[in-house]
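Chapter summary example.
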Amino acid sequence: MVEGYSTEEVVNWCLGYIDPKYPIGISKPRHEGRLTGIGILGQKTFNPVPLAFKQAHFLVLQHTSEVSKYIDEHKELLLRENPDRNEAWLARTHMDRFNLWFRKRIHDSESGIDEGIKNLASGPLFTVTSYQGYDINGYTYYTVSQDQKGTYQNSGVRIDAYDQSGQKAAYYGQIEEIWELTYPGFKVPIFRCR
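The structure predicted for these 194 residues follows.
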């Protein structure tokens, strides 16, 4: 009976030191309630190679639904000006010229353009932040180099991608680099995979 009383007394004494905001029990996942991304490991800032930077910005524009009408407009313009060119040339030229054309198109437009579109057209800062790990949409992703350092590995990704003709194909790869592009008012993470 004395032992039971002592145990109860010790537990009550310990409870006095536990913060009531953080109850004892099963812990909450660290991602709970957060869908936006945040870099978690190995933060570095650098100025990327101009071609890689241009490709990263192009990728962001191509995957933003609000930009799709401008993508179609640019492709139609290229086709109209170059009717004798093949699909490969049109795709290559679109990739090469779209960023500057989009910036000029938005800045020359009258009012009525969404502020987010204007920020996208302005482009990101040339200084890029890279990470070895990134939390986004409730998951943690690592680069291959970070995977080799630890026991928990999560550098593999799978996406359903669509090519220029609209054909769907599964893509499997491993994350080599994680970049965070900084646009006016928001940031966009990019995973470079192999």
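To summarize the output: The chain has a mean pLDDT of 86.
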